[in-house]
Amino acid sequence: MTPKEACLNLLGLSRRARKQIAGEGLALAAIRNQSAKLVFIASDAGPTTVKKFHDKAQSYDVPVIDTFTKAELNAATGNPRTVIAITDRGFARKMVAIMTN
């Protein structure tokens, strides 16, 4: 299993565990109230969305993973979303560890 596949599997698991927030508005609010521990941004998202979330995540010190497309995020979670915030520290730590190896 590749690191991308492992991370997408964890993304699906976090959805079933209700440890993620999907959608731009809700994810932005989660970053602001510091409940987001990791943010996924689709690699094919619009440039305005990408800049807004990268800037906001950087200012609140939230890691960002932007290597997956909208289709990959949709397949993993069952939600057609561009931005997903992970709210569980354990899931976030494991996903970051997988993607940085």
Short description:
It contains five helices and four strands; from the N terminus they run αβαβαβαβα.
Strand order of the main beta sheet, please? 1-4-2-3
* Helical residue percent band: 55-70%
What portion of residues belong to β-strands? 5-15%
Largest sheet: number of strands, sense, barrel closure: 4 strands, mixed
Low-pLDDT runs? none
Shape: globular
Overall mean pLDDT stands at 94
| SS field, number of helical segments | 5
Q: Tell me the Rg in angstroms.
A: 12 Å
CA-to-CA gap between the ends? 13 Å
Structural class: alpha+beta
Tell me the series of helices and strands, N- to C-terminal: HEHEHEHEH
Q: How many runs of DSSP E, i.e. beta strands?
A: 4
Describe the structure in your own words:
A 4-stranded mixed sheet has the order 1-4-2-3, with helices on both faces. α3 (47-59) links the parallel β2 (38-41) and β3 (64-65). 55% of the residues lie in helices and 13% in strands. By secondary structure, it is α+β, with helices and mostly antiparallel strands. It is globular. The chain has 5 helices and 4 strands, in the order αβαβαβαβα.
